[in-house]
From TrEMBL:
Lineage: Eukaryota, Viridiplantae, Streptophyta, Embryophyta, Tracheophyta
One Pfam match: Ku_N
Cell location: Nucleus
InterPro entries attached to this UniProt entry: DNA_bd_Ku70/Ku80 (IPR006164), Ku70 (IPR006165), Ku70_bridge/pillars_dom_sf (IPR027388), KU70_core_dom (IPR047087), Ku_N (IPR005161), SPOC-like_C_dom_sf (IPR016194), vWFA_dom_sf (IPR036465)
Protein name per Swiss-Prot or TrEMBL: Ku domain-containing protein
Coiled-coil boundaries: none
DNA repair listed as a keyword: yes
Biological processes, Gene Ontology terms: DNA recombination; double-strand break repair via nonhomologous end joining; telomere maintenance
């Protein structure tokens, strides 16, 4: 049986006529990069991959440039803005001091990531000190609060775009763990309070704030001094957020990619445990193939995107059909009409719930039972309060008893039996490696399993057979294959890499 790659990686909710699918496809990211431009960012240095001494400002700029190149390939519809604070010059719509928003040629402050934008941004270090300039952080005797102003400007940039189904984020680069460390008394308390309130106001509007700290070789970034309160970190979350300075600097590009590629929810499921007891789960696709962006049709005169509209015309009269289209089925020399809603209900096998059937030992699950890429499940209390507590209790019991859950996953077109396998959390010094949750494995039906040995039952058949020597060498080769630290992230998609090179070559010429 030949498998279709698109079908293997497609989720049950990937139906273009499904409202949940259309809403998910419309989701885009609005990102504002906030970069600290104080003299300390230029005086503090670290070693890059080539063991060369570079400034923290250079590290931040390099990470943003790399993120823009990745965004332009994977999420070309996202919009970005780059903002510096603690600057000598100011440029922002609010005319606030110490904040400079980059405005590239022919673009607004919040713009699509393009090759031209990346090319101009790569020259930012050369023109920064000449045109923008750097100034010291908040000092004693000054009432200017640059980080407060920066959050205000970033919030205003993101509020300009009132798009449905949009994610808004602020990525903050700094090596100053206590921006109010030089202040004392009531002034410090007042500035801290107003800044934290500004961050809370932004988060209440649906804007998430991510911190990318830069540590010096002789001093670790202490997030508990100020940014723990700004990010809402408490207890163990603070400890997990504090990797060593060396790991943080070496892994800076990877950390930025983790924040750029936000874990978008594939769909929401209702997990029915028993009659009358259900919880809400969010599903995530851990691995998906990277594909080229959708084709955008442009007007040949204005070069603006075209809006495509579909109109039905009656074949008999040539008039425009205004009523919703209907489908027909021949039955006993008659045409039976169905509306799209009725046809959808006929095809519906289940309500889309995930229903628990029972538990089995993990030893009953075989490797060949994994029919297609799994889906990761994590609880959510947004609609069903208490889902997390019930999920955690079930998760811990399954791990302790070494069981997996057998469940029915119903969809409109493909009802299946699935196995829910619990995964324990893995935490190292550099942070969380594996999150706690469950993997939903799609189990095969009997017809999905093919016995390869059927071709070789007859010794006299024409099918080729390996000799004992060939089998021995193949066995030795497989034993030497080391996949201990293997990760799919180690290999990039060659099609995407070539596309990026072609785009950069085009704008270079």
């Amino acid at each position: 049986m030949e498998l279709d790659p698109d079908e293997v990686f497609r989720d049950d909710g990937d139906d273009p006529e499904n409202e949940a699918y259309q809403e998910r496809e419309a989701t885009k990211d609005l990102v504002v990069y906030l970069v600290d431009a104080s003299p300390r960012m230029f005086s503090s240095t670290c070693k890059n991959e080539d063991q060369e001494e570079v400034t923290h400002f250079h590290v931040a700029v390099s990470c943003i440039s790399q993120a823009l190149k990745t965004q332009i390939i994977n999420r070309s519809s996202d919009e970005v803005a780059i903002c510096f604070f603690n600057t000598r010059e100011k440029r922002n719509l609010q005319d606030l001091p110490g904040v400079y928003v980059l405005k590239f040629t022919g673009s607004e402050y919040l713009d699509l990531p393009t090759a031209k934008l990346i090319k101009e941004f790569d020259q930012i270090e050369e023109m920064f000190m000449k045109d923008i300039g750097s100034q010291h952080c908040i000092v004693s005797g000054s009432r200017e609060n640059s980080i407060y102003n920066a959050l205000w400007v970033a919030q205003a940039l993101l509020r300009k775009r009132s798009v449905k189904s949009v994610d808004k984020r602020i990525l903050l680069f700094t090596n100053e763990d206590d921006p109010f460390g030089r202040l004392k008394g009531a002034i410090k308390l007042d500035m801290t309070r107003t800044t934290l309130q500004r961050a809370k106001d932004a988060q209440d509007l649906g804007i998430s704030i991510e911190l990318l700290p830069l540590s010096r070789s002789d001093e670790k970034f202490n997030v508990s001094l100020f940014y723990a309160d700004l990010l809402g970190l408490e207890g163990d979350a603070i400890t997990q957020f504090l990797p060593s300075a060396e790991d943080r600097l070496e892994d800076m590009n990877l950390q930025l990619r983790k924040r750029i590629f936000k874990k978008r929810i594939v769909r929401r499921l209702t997990f029915a445990i028993t009659d009358g007891l259900s919880i809400q789960l969010n599903t995530y696709a851990l691995i998906r193939p990277t594909v080229t962006g959708a084709i955008t049709w442009l007007d040949s005169v204005t070069n603006l995107p075209l809006k495509i509209e579909r109109t039905f015309i009656c074949a008999d009269t040539g008039a425009l059909v205004k009523d919703p289209p209907k489908r027909v089925q021949h039955y006993k020399n008659e045409l039976v009409k169905f509306s799209m809603e009725e046809l959808s209900k006929i095809k519906q096998v289940s309500s889309g719930y995930l229903r628990l059937l029972g538990f089995k030992p993990l030893s009953c699950l075989q490797e060949y039972h994994n029919l297609k890429p799994s889906t990761f499940l994590f609880p959510s209390d947004e609609e069903v309060v208490g889902s997390t507590h019930i999920f955690v209790a079930l998760h811990r019991s399954m791990i302790r008893l070494e069981r997996f859950a057998l469940a029915f996953h119903g969809s409109s077109t493909n009802p299946r039996l699935v196995a829910l396998i619990p995964q324990e959390e893995i935490v190292v010094a550099g942070g969380q490696i594996e999150p706690p949750g469950m993997h939903m494995i799609f189990l095969p039906y009997t017809d999905d399993i093919r016995a390869v040995e059927e071709l070789h039952l007859d010794v006299n058949s024409a099918a080729p057979h390996a000799t004992p020597e060939q089998i021995g060498k193949a066995r030795s080769l497989m034993k030497r294959v080391d996949l201990t630290n293997f990760s799919v992230c180690q290999f990039s998609n060659p099609v995407m890499s070539q596309l990026c090179k072609d785009i950069m070559r085009y704008y270079k010429h």
